[in-house]
Structure formats: structure tokens, C-alpha cells
Design a protein that fits this description.
73% of the residues lie in helices and 0% in strands. By secondary structure, the chain is an all-alpha fold.
């Protein structure tokens, strides 16, 4: 009886769409898109192909479902992180007021500073969304290609609206005029997916083509090659060779987001530097 119960539970789990998608993600992570076959999936789930076809019609639908699941997880993690930050800010502030017995270090007169963005601000949430997608693409090397296909092939599917909604809500919260919501959000989405996707591709290439060379060695070799370029044809590239060698991927990614955000606020928010264009007709 116990054996029959375990078999029934296993069969029920294998027949759920969620378990099928979970197994597909596992196969994609270990074997890539080429390794995702219905035969491999049936072996992993210990079931027959008919059971899988009952839930998923073909490989394209399976890829779409796997992409949707990974993106939804990344965005859900960001929302949970944002909620946690909001709670921790309040509790930390209360604890600090109750427990503080004096400054940890001697302090002098306060220096004038620019007003900081409030905790859990729209800018912070955009950065959190961006890093959630950055990490998802790093963890799932097949994801950048699938996201590019989703954006170009089926923007009406579930993935593109999820990403646009998450970022677009924060663009709206920034105070950007409605006539510029789509352009500002698109600029952020394309930067985030493009830069994170390129970083994931670089990491995948390093793992597969030069597995015995670590990142520092790889960048050092590239930097030396840039420095040896013709100074008349490549003066700029030679000048930034050392910066390329020493850069941090996540810091560079964040710097790009901040550049886009600075441009959006400068162009579209009243009181920021620059003029505010009239909304598009």
C-alpha cells in the first residue's frame, strides 16, 4: 500500500504543469536549449510523453512557460526584497532611536549634501528589478535569447507585460508625464535586458571556451591587446584599456541604470536640470 501511494504521488507530481516547467528549467540550465527534448523530459519526470503533451503542446510553448516562470520568480523576489527593505528601514530606525548610546565614531559638523532619495524609492525599486533580472540571466544562460524572442516575436505574451509593468509602475511613480511613460520605460527595459544579456553571454563564453582562465586573467589579456592597438586608429580604446580590465560587472551595470535614470529625470521631471518637454501629441 505504501508503494502504491508513493507511485501515485509521483505520477500526480509528474502530471502537473508546474512540475513539467520546473523540470524543463532544470534541463535548460544543465544542457541548454538543445538538451531540452520531450524524451529527456519524460526520462527526468519518469512518465510518458502523452502525459506531458496533455499540459504542453510543443517545445516552443515549453520554452515560453520556462521563461515566464523564471521571470516571474525574479520579479517576485524583487517585490519581496522591496517589502523587506521597507520593513527593515522602519524597524532599524526605531531600534536605533531606542538603543543608540552615542556615535560609533567622532563626528564633525555636518557637510551640506544633496537630498538623498527616500528609502524604497522608485529608483531603488528599478535597481532591484534590474538586479533580479541580471541575476536570473546569469543563473540561466538560455534566458537572454528567450527574452529577446519574447520581446520581438510575442510582446503580447505574459513575459513582456510583466517586465514592462514592473518597471513602468516605477517610472510613473517618479512623476514622468504620461506621454513619456512608454519611451522612458522602453529605454530602461532595453538597457537592462541588453546589458544583463551581454554579461550573461560573456560569462557563458568564459565558462565554455576558456574554462581554465579566470575572469581577471581574461580581462588582463584583453586589456593588453587593447593597449597594443594602433594609437592613431584606436586612441580612445587604448586610453580605457585599464578601466576595462579593472571594472566590476555589477557596478558597471548599475552605473548604466543610473545614467538612464538621470536622463529620464533631467528631461521629464519639473525642477530637475533641463527643460521639461511637452507631452507627445
Amino acid at each position: 500500500m505504501a508503494t502504491r501511494t508513493r507511485r501515485t504521488q509521483r505520477r500526480t507530481e509528474a502530471l502537473s504543469r508546474e512540475r513539467i516547467v520546473e523540470a524543463a528549467v532544470e534541463l535548460l540550465d544543465t544542457a541548454g536549449e538543445g538538451g531540452l527534448t520531450f524524451r529527456a523530459l519524460t526520462e527526468r519526470l519518469a512518465t510518458g510523453p502523452g502525459a506531458i503533451y496533455w499540459h504542453v503542446a510543443n517545445k516552443d510553448e515549453l520554452l515560453d512557460a520556462a521563461t515566464d516562470a523564471v521571470v516571474a520568480t525574479a520579479l517576485a523576489a524583487e517585490r519581496a526584497e522591496s517589502a523587506g527593505r521597507a520593513g527593515s528601514v522602519g524597524s532599524a530606525g526605531a531600534a536605533g532611536a531606542a538603543e543608540s548610546t552615542g556615535p560609533a565614531e567622532p563626528t564633525g559638523p555636518a557637510e551640506p549634501t544633496e537630498p538623498a532619495a527616500p528609502p524604497n524609492s522608485p529608483q531603488d525599486k528599478i535597481r532591484a528589478i534590474a538586479f533580479g533580472l541580471f541575476d536570473a540571466m546569469e543563473d540561466h544562460p538560455w534566458l537572454p535569447t528567450q527574452l529577446a524572442l519574447q520581446l520581438s516575436r510575442s510582446p503580447w505574451g505574459s513575459v513582456t507585460p510583466q517586465i514592462f509593468e514592473s518597471i513602468g509602475r516605477q517610472v510613473r511613480a517618479l512623476g514622468v508625464p504620461e506621454g513619456h511613460w512608454f519611451t522612458a520605460t522602453s529605454a530602461l527595459v532595453h538597457y537592462i535586458l541588453g546589458a544583463a544579456g551581454q554579461n550573461a553571454a560573456n560569462s557563458a563564453t568564459a565558462r565554455t571556451r576558456v574554462p581554465d582562465v579566470d575572469r581577471a586573467e581574461f580581462l588582463d589579456a584583453a586589456s593588453k591587446a587593447w593597449k597594443e592597438l594602433d594609437p592613431d586608429d584606436y586612441p580612445f580604446t587604448r586610453a580605457v584599456a585599464a578601466q576595462m580590465r579593472d571594472h566590476d560587472d555589477r557596478e558597471q551595470f548599475l552605473a548604466g541604470i543610473d545614467l538612464v535614470l538621470t536622463g529620464i529625470t533631467a528631461l521629464h521631471l519639473p525642477g530637475e536640470r533641463g527643460s521639461t518637454p511637452s507631452p507627445a501629441p
